[in-house]
Task: structure prediction
Amino acid sequence: MKLKDILLINIKKLKTKTKKALFLIIPIFVLITLSVILSSQITNIQKAAANSVFGTISQKFTLIEVQTEQTAFDPSKAFNTTSSVEDNRFSALDETTIKTIAGVKNVSLQTTLPVKNAKTTDLFTDKTVSFSSLSTLDTTAASIYTTSDFTYTEGEAIPIILNASALTTSTEDWGDKTEITMDTSSITRGQGGIAQRLSFLKTEAITYDKDSLMGTTFTMQIGGLDTIQDYTIDRSSGTMVIRKLTDEEMATKVEERKTAISTYWNYDQISTPITYTFVVVGIVDDNTSNTTYVPQNFADTLVKDYIAHEVNSRNGTAIPTTVLNSTFTGVTYDGVEVKTSSSGMIGQMVRRFESSSSTGGSTNIPHERPTEGGLGFGGEFGSTGYYIPGLVIQVDSSNNVTGAVSDTNIYTTSTKYGDYLDVVIDNVVNRTAIIEAINNAGYAYQDTDDVAVFDKLQSTLNTVSKVFMISFIVLVSALVAFTMSKFISESIREIGIFRAIGMRKNSVLAMFISQSLLYVLIGYVAGIGLGIALNFVSGYFVSGWFNTFLTETVAKTFNVVNTVDKNIFSGINFTSIGIYTALLIGISSIISIITSLSASKVSPVEAIKNE
Amino acid sequence: MGNILEVKKLTKKYKDGDIEVTALDNVSFSLPEGFDLAILGPSGSGKTTLLQLAGGLDTMTSGDVIISGQSIKNMSDTEISDFRNQTMGFIFQMINLHDFFTAKENVMLPMLVAGVNRGEAEEKALKLLEKVGLTKRANHLPKQLSGGEQQRVAVARALANDPKIIFADEPTGKLDKANSKLVIDILENLSHENGMSVIMITHDENIAKRFSRVIKLENGSVKNN
Result:
């Protein structure tokens, strides 16, 4: 029998037994309508959440920055050369450990470069921006912040990821005064901020346009001598007097330093910074750190240049060990690691303080001001020594100075440590589990509740999606199996007649399979049509719900909430529709074949049974 | 002239629970071409079983059935299906039309099963319906036809592929006298016209008298020949 004629039989059956057929057609129709709407809207919500609402947050959540445990500031350890922070840092070993955790895509050590006085004057008009902390970032971790390749290529502008928190500018405003007296009797150590105490220092954020800043090329000067502090602080019980130095006093200080440095170095050469050209490829705009990132493969080049610059600036006079770490400071090398500053705390404080920047052309910004918790230390620090950029001081295990290092490759060959491990994970949804594994591996990391909100939304939607798909499979199977079994059991005599007339088993099989598929197909086509139409309607409601969710829940949890384009919710997930189509065809075919086999086994004797 | 039907030592046994029932016991007869046969007998005598086996609708326990020189005993399901379609026509007591087909479509069905083009099948179906006097009813569904009309459609369907032999199981059992006579008349005329043999089960001695051959069954065996 021709397949065409078999199909025509089914169309005849459908016409005369429409009600029966609807038992299969309607449920399939409803299921497909729902699957179109549900799968599309789930994707739309996820897309809206990922793209518009959480913005960088969602992407940021694929990065876990494991930090070393910071100990509370202890003044008695302020001059202790072996700070606990220094001892408790990450190395390549930690990278290997965390890399074994399932779901971890990449681990990289964030190493702070032992360089100082990095600044640019041409990134923003009339503004100098200082980069207090230059860290390395490997290409995988960098992909969180940039779509560009974060690799240094010789002869090309070096890609850099700026930090919005570091884009600040500081000014000094003495008004018409040259001396400020402050009542310090109510201030206890560790309280209050710098602005409260040094009211002449003003810091403000630089406003920038992210889109136009991206791709901008600028030069950065690294190294050079520190800015000389242009004020003194005199303290007596309960008061603090800050006095601006006179021009003569400043000139004297500059001259004193020049004389001291010129003993061992070519002054002009050592005071000239090295210049590099960078191109902005990314901007970190959360405020958790103020680190500026450069490519991992640029670190060795930069530090080598930096050290070589110092070595080449020496005038030939041997530098006695007694002046190292006293009259002159730099970085130290203990046979393992090149460390910033011999006095750990001072180095830390200086780096932290340097996050502010100075106005263009201004050379009289103090660099060693007192910072939080370090009230009144400025004066003492100011006299600890002159910073020589690139100077590497060799120390023994007891931190005794043994000489100045002349090997420019010392950083390249030394072991790198870092305060951060950048752990990139495969999916935000796995974040909670991965953090637990990191904790179990012995690393302290605590996620904030904000993440849970995001996690929950995404995983709830994924669960809804999965549950629906499983229900879909079960329902389609049950529906086709049930209705087809019923059709067949009600058609025993009919099949008997077909067989008595001479219809082959295979034709009976084909007849019932095609009947089932025809009904499923009708339900499917109608369902897709209505589903797509209703998706636009439901998009309207989902969009309304989502905006309420945004303003009433998300906005209160996260600072950054972008508006959502309503059109996102009229999106149709054709991939999901494809999956449901494939599932429907697959399942109904299999179940139809199984049930129709029983139809083909009906004996032609059934036609002749007289009952 | 050979035999259109040869039944040789045909036996059918089946199990009803643990008891083995012999529905047909060693039945043998033959029917020459051009002859008709009436099978008489009380209910339970094995008439229907004989018809089922002879028509290849059911499998025999032993013996053989030869139709138009071909043994159907060892035919595969596909072979016997095709053989039934081409060589045999069936008319049942219960009026067995497909309720979703019109009269014409029901008649077309055996031809479609045989792979005949729809146009050809339709033309022939209309001719057959004309012969059974149902031209005006061609596009009616079975439920729109009377019992007698439905059975005439069944007769037309049985003739569709010009079979050599027609099996009829009390085709007038559910019809009134007038309709019974009409159906039998049509069947007789058409089969003779086309040189077909009709094998019919009946319990009506008067109808049986119109047949050239009659066998009587009792308890699964032939009473006389």
Q: What stands out?
A: The helical segments of chain B are 47-54, 77-87, 103-113, 118-131, 147-159, 177-194, 205-208. The domain at 3-98+145-222 of chain B is CATH 3.40.50.300 (Rossmann fold). The mean pLDDT of chain B is 91. The radius of gyration of chain B is 17 Å.
